[in-house]
Design goal:
- The complex is a heterodimer.
- By secondary structure, chain A is of the alpha/beta class.
- Chain A folds into three domains: about 200 residues; about 150 residues, Alpha-Beta Plaits (2-Layer Sandwich); about 260 residues, TIM Barrel (Alpha-Beta Barrel), CATH 3.20.20.
- Chain A is built from 24 helices and 16 strands.
- In chain A, strands 8-9-11-12-13-14-15-16 form an eight-stranded mixed β-barrel, surrounded by five helices. In chain A, strands 2-3-1-6-7 form a five-stranded mixed sheet, with helices on both faces.
- Chain B is of the alpha+beta class.
- Chain B is built from five helices and ten strands, in the order H-E-E-H-E-E-H-E-E-H-E-E-E-H-E.
- In chain B, the strands form two sheets. A five-stranded mixed sheet of chain B has the order 2-1-10-5-6.
- Chain B is globular.
- About 5% of the residues of chain B have low confidence.
- The chains are: A alpha/beta, B alpha+beta.
- The interface between A and B is medium-sized, with 17 and 19 residues.
């Protein structure tokens, strides 16, 4: 129930009131008109008796004369009929109430009463009147004539009065007619106001409806569009995809779904700020709009993700993808800054790859993932192998989660040795997974899965905690060795990494000066500001840092000065052929000299032979690790190893091959 | 039981008459006495050529009713006797909605016929036990039961009291 709009009711009441007022005027006027009609009727019907009487007296007089003078032409009965008519009218005028006005006028000397008396007298004379009795006739005529004379002056007066009265009546009627005119106007005005009000109401209602429709349209627009770029949003895109697939199904045609995201968009936001990032998205939207044709659907799915649906065969999608990759690779100029990004596109086709919008999205997404994984700035069409790889990854992910929950993972340790003395200086912690049914699963298989599933922080934390617990145990056993733990770029991206690490140190009572965290060159280059803060903070707490796989990644060595790094770990690829390749030797020597120049220690990775070890010693490389010294081994094995090595240190320092082998 | 049967019979006869009667124009018995009023115009039944003539015998035949009333033409209460106007109209089969009443002195007025069905309006022939003469506004006078109906005490109705009535025409 809608509440009553009293304002509107009052508004309605106004013209209705006017209408009622006008109607009241109508009744008043009608009442007055009725009175006027009555008086006009009276005016036209009364008084006749006066004229009639005067006339009848005349008739009687002429009948009488004809009867007396012109013998036989008129009967006595006719004369008496004329007389009776005069008689009866005189009687009515005297006795009746009907003709009040004429009687009043005849009151001049009681004319009518005198006449009635006179008629009685004449009646006696008439009764035996015979033709030829002229004397008698003259007596009667004299009497009648005197009354007729008196009556004529009265009649004249009456005529004048009638003229006056009719004049008055005419004016009165005119007044009434004017009143009717006014009433007409008032009524018309009322109706006009009423109609006007109705019109206003209608217009208002129509306007309100239009407003509502506009608002609905706006709401629908907002619900289906991205406000930044003006493109459709994800909801709109999903709807369009459903529609286009339905249409294609009917027409037995195909649909291509392109999903894309911008490579390095996050870096743009981080480096230039969000306004620039937004501006970039707008320009990207414009450029994409130029790549699509009528009938294609383009939408921004969120963040830097865009989607295009085209109702054409795969060849068209290929052309469009190529064009988009090229178009977005061209530099963007925003705020006088030149920004370069690239894009990755995944394409899936209906009905070749998938038959429903959901599966088509999934396939396209997989293709996009593949495009990104294979170096970005490219497009990929969905292939079954992608799904197989994904399925494998998914399966592994389930197992990995389970393993983390059930503590099926282990940390193995690879010794790091002083090349000169053979003393064990430390160990590198490495995650190992042996599944109860599947057996050993190499890190190269499960680490990418953990990365993709977002399990790296959890895994990293677990490895770190385990390593700390173990190193404390060894320290308590008298083996004061260092502990090196790998730090993934994904861990570096978490804001409170330093807090977590320090908390674990406290929790396990591990001493920070024995902890080294290993990072790759590339991971140090990401989130430079945050990374530097984290590293500096941990370094102040006593933790040292090593650059892992040095020499394979970033070519800008400036970062070595930028970060608190203590060790360089020479990548195994340099060591592998060091005996045979002069170039490798030159490179390795260069790295070692560089490190020493900067005051850093060097750890050689992947030493497999004594020869390699000797060459590195000759190059002044202090430390190394590799199968030659020991594979990664379990906590118990490493403890045994440490015990053994401690007693053999002196032997090792002489470089005995046999002893090394036995380790 | 018997009264019910009589009633049914009456209704049937009435229906039969109602169905048959209007269909044929009747030639009524010719007047015997002197004509008092002459009716002309559209008459279903006539008794003299295409006219309807009211004589004293017809008055007796239709039956006289009495009406005591004051009038606008005399002083005091008057006792009239005469026939109901509607009886005369019915007798001659007059279906008009208006009639024109005309007097000896040529006074004429139109009267709606509904007056005669709404009120017991008489054509009076006797006043206070005596036949009306011309001198007494006779020989016939249309009189309304003016005392019985306040609405009749009006100038408009007073004008329909045609005295010295001699002719009636249908409109």
């Amino acid at each position: 129930m809608k509440s009553i709009n009293w304002k509107r009711v009052a508004l309605y009441a106004l013209p209705l009131g006017l209408l009622a007022y006008a109607s009241f005027g109508v009744w008043e006027n009608l009442g007055s008109l009725r009175n006027r009609v009555d008086s006009s009727y009276a005016l036209t019907t009364r008084n006749d008796e006066g004229f009639r009487l005067e006339m009848e007296l005349g008739t009687f007089q002429s009948d009488l004369i004809q009867y007396v003078m012109d013998e036989g032409t008129i009967s006595f009965d006719d004369v008496m009929l004329s007389f009776d008519l005069v008689w009866s009218r005189t009687q009515v005028l005297n006795d009746g109430s009907i003709y009040t006005a004429p009687r009043g006028q005849f009151e001049d000397g009681d004319l009518l009463l005198d006449l009635q008396k006179e008629l009685h007298a004449l009646d006696a004379l008439l009764i035996d009147l015979k033709p030829g009795e002229i004397k008698k006739m003259n007596t009667i005529i004299r009497s009648v004539s005197s009354y007729r004379d008196r009556m004529v002056s009265v009649v004249n007066k009456m005529i004048q009065q009638r003229v006056d009265e009719s004049n008055e009546l005419r004016l009165a009627l005119q007044h009434v007619v004017e009143g009717l005119d006014r009433m007409h106007t008032e009524f018309g005005l009322g109706v006009f106001l009423f109609v006007l009000l109705l019109t206003i109401e209608t217009v208002k209602a129509r306007r309100a409806e239009a407003k509502l429709k506009h608002r609905e349209k706006r709401v629908r627009y907002l619900a289906e569009h991205d406000t930044l770029t003006g493109l459709g949003n994800r909801a709109y895109f999903n709807k369009s995809l459903g529609r286009m697939i339905d249409e294609a199904k009917q027409d037995e045609e195909s649909v291509q779904l392109l999903l894309m995201d911008l490579d390095g968009f996050k870096d743009v936001n981080d480096s230039f700020g969000h306004p620039v990032g937004d501006e970039l998205l707008k320009i990207v939207a414009t450029r994409l709009n130029q790549c699509v044709r009528d009938g294609d659907e383009l939408a921004r799915l969120g963040g830097d993700e865009f989607g295009i649906i085209i109702g054409s065969p795969a060849s068209a999608a290929q052309m469009m993808s190529k064009r988009i990759v090229e178009t977005l690779a061209k530099p963007f100029s925003i705020d006088n800054k030149e920004i370069r990004i690239s894009t990755s596109i995944g394409v899936a086709s209906y009905p070749e790859n998938a038959k429903t919008p959901e599966t088509l999205m999934r396939d396209s997404d997989m293709a996009l993932y593949d495009a990104k994984a294979s170096g970005r700035n490219s497009y990929r069409f969905y292939k079954q192998s992608m799904k197989d790889a994904l399925d494998k990854r998914k399966g592994l992910e389930v197992l990995l989660r389970e393993a983390l929950d059930k503590n099926q993972l282990e940390v193995h340790y690879q010794p790091q040795i002083c090349l000169k003395t053979g003393q064990v200086l430390g160990v590198e912690a490495l995650a190992r997974w042996t599944h109860p049914e599947r057996g050993f699963i190499p890190p190269s298989d499960f680490i990418p899965v953990a990365e993709h599933a977002g399990l790296i922080p959890q895994l990293g934390e677990w490895v770190f905690r385990q390593s700390c617990i173990d190193v404390v145990e060894w320290h308590n056993a008298g083996h004061h060795i260092r502990m090196s733990v790998n730090l993934s770029p994904l861990q570096l991206a978490t804001a409170n990494l330093a807090d977590e690490i320090l908390a674990i140190l406290q929790e396990t009572s591990a001493r920070s000066e024995f902890i080294t965290l290993e990072l790759t060159e590339t991971s140090m280059m990401k989130n430079t500001r945050q990374t530097k803060d984290t590293l500096t903070r941990l370094n102040k707490a006593g933790i040292r840092f090593a650059v892992d796989d040095f020499g394979t990644g970033y070519s800008n060595l400036g970062y070595l000065l930028h970060y608190p790094v203590s060790y360089l770990k020479i990548d195994r690829s340099f060591i592998m052929n060091i005996e045979a390749s002069n170039e490798e030797q030159v490179m390795t020597r260069g790295i070692i000299n560089l490190a020493h120049g900067l005051g850093l220690s060097v750890v050689a990775e992947g030493i497999e032979t004594l020869e390699q070890s000797e060459i590195l010693q000759e190059m002044q490389c202090q430390e190394g690790q590799g199968y030659f010294y020991g594979k990664p081994m379990s906590k118990l094995k490493i403890l045994l190893y440490l015990e053994k090595m401690k007693s053999n240190v002196t032997l090792l320092s002489t470089g005995s091959r046999d002893v090394m082998k036995s380790a | 039981m018997s009264s019910w049967r009589k009633y049914t019979f009456g209704v049937l006869v009435g229906l039969a008459i109602a169905v048959v009667a209007p269909a044929q124009a009747k030639e009524l018995p010719a007047p015997i006495g002197k004509a008092i009023i002459t009716l002309s115009g559209v008459l279903e039944n006539t008794n003299q050529g295409n006219l309807g003539v009211v004589d004293w015998d017809l008055v007796q035949q239709l039956g006289m009713h009495e009406l005591n009333t004051t009038t606008a033409f005399d002083k005091g209460m008057q006792k009239f006797r005469g026939v109901l106007v509607r009886d005369v109209l019915k007798y001659f089969g007059i279906k008009a909605s208006t009639i024109r009443a005309i007097a000896l002195d040529d006074y004429a007025i139109d009267i709606p016929v509904e007056d005669f069905y709404k009120y017991d309006v008489l054509i009076a022939f006797e006043l206070n036990g005596k036949r009306l003469r011309v001198r007494d506004k006779g020989p016939a006078w249309i009189v309304y039961p003016r005392d019985a109906h306040k609405g009749l005490q009006d100038k408009m109705f007073d004008d329909r009291w045609v005295w010295q009535l001699i002719r009636v025409e249908t409109k």
